[in-house]
# Entry
Amino acid sequence: MKLNKNIYSVLSFTIVVLSLIIAVNAIFSGSVFTAGESTADTAMDSRINPNFSEKALLTNGIELTTDEPTEPAKKETKPKDKKDEEKSKESTTKEPETTKEQATTADISATNADEKQERFYATAIPVETPASYEEQWNAGYLVAIDNPDKTYECAKVTLTDEDRDLLERLCYGEFGSGGFIGAALIAQCVKDAMCFDGYPTVESVIKGCHYDGSTEKGTSTACKQAVSYIFDQNKEAVQHRMMYMYNPKIVYSSFHESQNYILTYQDVRFFDRWGY
# Structure
């Protein structure tokens, strides 16, 4: 009888230990989210307009994922004469003058990986009424968001051939890995800057908004299609103005995270600024 009690005690203790182990594994094996992230951010596929799913896009000749970039057009260069070569040598060997860098509203506050700083990731402001994804899809938006702005409207912008070429290359340089959707998000940011801040050209947007994506790598079919969708068809990727974006896996920006967070696509976070 005493032996049975001992066996019962051992079994009970073993069951408790196993239960604790299972509970701990369940906690740490699940998805871990940092501040500002949510299951909605990671389940972006469920937000993409069904009419723009990978299968639907391919049917219409649009590539959701990036393809090999097409080479940028090479400009003709005239051979330099000896005087030009001498001037060129002088300019490259001369010590550059130091200039004070101008502060901008879009200044990035970067932190190195080895710096210990608490990182704050903004979240979308909750809306009183749950947003209808289907309503956004029916209106032609590529990605449904939880905080749409139903008052958002951007006038149509007509691109010159030069602007179109530059924007297609910018979309690839900024977010080529994002394919059609990623390029459309970048294109909308550029169009919103032209609509709401009055930039007259793509080049002026690049300089004024401090875009640093390379425009020397060429572009892709997906980027060309995205630029056409946003500008020629006068569509938007999301139902909200977007003015800023950055990738926190490359550099953390406290400035961006202080703005009005809209969505995350892949690793890139998009924001509107507060007020107009």
